[in-house]
Batch of 4 targets.
Target 1
Amino acid sequence: MQNKEILRVAEEVSNEKGVDKEIIFEALEIAIASATRKKYGEEIDVRVAINRKTGEYDTFRRWKIFADDSTELEFPDKELRLEDGLDVSPDAQPGGYVEVPLESDGMDIDMLEALLSRHRPRLIYTNPTFQNPTGVTTSIEKRRSILALARKHGVSILEDDQNPELRFAGAPISSICALSEPDDDVFYVRGFGKVFLPGTRLGYVVTPARARRSLLGLKAQSDLHTNGIMQEAMARFLARKNYPKILERMKRVYATKQRKLIATLSAGMPPGTLIGQPEGGLNLWLTLPEGAEVSELYYRAVRRGVAFVAGEGFYASHTNPRTLRVSFGLLRDDALEEGVTRLCSVAQDLMPPRSASSPIFT
């Protein structure tokens, strides 16, 4: 779903000459701080480092994780797909990942504490709101528990809060960053692409004061600078204060798409299919019944012109070959309906006849 106002602002900026990049940066920082505090009522210490969203985890890893360190990640998780070149040994070899199982309300806290004691990692990575790919939202109790364990074990937290604005049901939950104290080592990352304009590749990190300069240095080493036109366009867009109305319209559109997708999947997928029902976000997480494998489903679906993401790519270990992620943000209603109909047809063809009654919602 495109935000035409941002596109108009970007064209306006691109036609100007001599825009000062320092003024751009300051304007965007002020706009982000104002928007974050006003929208979510979170009094967080807004020291912002502008960041291309696709590189945030690599930058943090270079800054925080050294040769003998590991990272604790909830699983399944999108970062395991973005970092294919890294050591993802289940035994947490140097520089590797340690996976923490997800429950319906977030990380398994008992397992997290055990793994923190065993592996002594330097960083906990979490995507607590409408987690990608599962759609799970971490409860306020578990957010406090994660923060408490990070304090106890001297571990930093990287909170990737990609699209908490896209909530269709339930009440907003404070970020871990908003719950933290000034001395806590919490890094809060947010991007604009998922919400306002796909492909923007623009985001920010709220960082402890001591880390800001070094993170900006690593950012500069990674790609010199972020697109100046898009920074200025986003700063002006936020300053015009039209985004709340635009966001409400987007939420209505996406909520309708999500409801239609769930209804069509529940009617057409094989009996026993687990269908996630997140309170927001742009993805659904499915688990096929016993006896089905996503690899064969993907091969057949692609031949019918339908694509999805197989769940195996979201695990470093402990893979579940029956899981898949379905996304719906960019599709027109007619294309979404046709695609799901084809997917359900292919999935039914894979399954032997059985007597189970209906899909199961999670």
Note: The mean pLDDT is 77.
Target 2
Amino acid sequence: MNPLSLLMDSGVWGLIICVVGLLNLLIILVQIPLIRRVNLLPLAWAGVIAVVFCGMLGTVAGLMMGFDAMASASPDTKQMLMAAAASIAMSATALGLMIATVEVILVGMVSCFMGNLRHRESSGA
């Protein structure tokens, strides 16, 4: 199989999104015990953005594959091919947005906790 066609596969992008999402979740979970010593939240925010971009790239790759398949298809099947390609391609964006939404909530919660902790430490309470 051609490496370029493998990169164009929406399923591969779905796997990439899940791996990036899990790595980012690991960063968020590591941040909690290290809350007083190190701030990994900027890295976690970058991970959220990377998940969204991977989803968008998966969508573009899936649509490109769909258009490529349509170019050589008979006129009877073009409509069906486009609908199937769009459906598969949009699943990459949906997966990326779902994972990013959960991670935004988690990063926000950890960020608030860190802010409250720093406020209590600075006020001497």
Note: Residues 3-119 form one domain.
Target 3
Amino acid sequence: MSPKAGEVALVGWTNVGKSTLLNRLVGEKLAAVAQRPQTTRHRIMGVLTLPERGQIVFVDTPGFHRPRERMNRAMVDAARRTLTAVDLAILVVDAEKGAGAGDAEVAKAIASSGVACSPNGSGSADTLSTFIE
């Protein structure tokens, strides 16, 4: 069996735990974690190597939000561009708060990008349409 690799974007509304998830998945602190929104301003990549199976490149993205400033628009644009460059997107939602209007916006962005999606890393892409409603 030949080793394989794939890229997985961690996307969601701002401050839902994408960076925390990246750090846990790769077993190292690669991304800064803070209570303050928009801590992640650029894409951050972390690699998980699965011996005899391949590698997963996780891409932590800036959080989606309603930008007012040029820098914030660039952050949201970076997150949107990431969706066109990966094999799978994981829609990360704050488990304590549950899904909200912002999460539905992100789900629509994922759906329109055409990338396969798994809400919170479980389920199938079919569950994304029910998430949007």
Note: The mean pLDDT is 79.
Target 4
Amino acid sequence: MALTQIKSSNIADGTVVAADIADDSITNADIKSDAAIATTKLSGALTGIASHGLPTFGTAAALAVGTGASQVVQMTTAPAKLPAVDGSNLTGIVSLTADQSWTGAQRSTMFADNDGSFDLNERNNFKCVAAGAITLTFTNIAGSDGQSGYILLTNAGHAISKAGTTKTDANMLATLSAGTGTFILSYISNNTNVYLTNSAIME
């Protein structure tokens, strides 16, 4: 009599091995829907299995890292920075070497620096209310060639001196020290020194 049906109860555990299963005979429908097969048991490229926490990968996933054509740019480490790339094809980027024109106001608020030391990397325009003797000093002069601006200086007879890199006329310090009121100082840097001029007391 030919066998027409074999029940699972007739098969002992561990008796069916891979060699007993014909190649390409198991289909997707033969696998239980909740079999929970680990992705580590699968071979070949995984293009995306959402149920296993893998997204659907785009074409960039297959590209090499680099800065050449058809490569993916990778940030450097510690600290993260973009590598040097050719940006000549970028659009919407304003060239800082070309002449510029503005239709709106360009301004920054004055930076309060009451100790008389002005950081040129901070702002262009400053205000200073001297509560005692101060020395007019500028920091970060290197790299500031051509930077100019104003200082609104309020004094009440306190002694005003200057650093060696602060250049004034022969009478300026005496005028500022003797005055009680507000002066406008203008300055410009040549990358080595900062040159100052002053107004009279503003009424």
Note: Residues 160 and 174 are 8 Å apart (CA to CA).
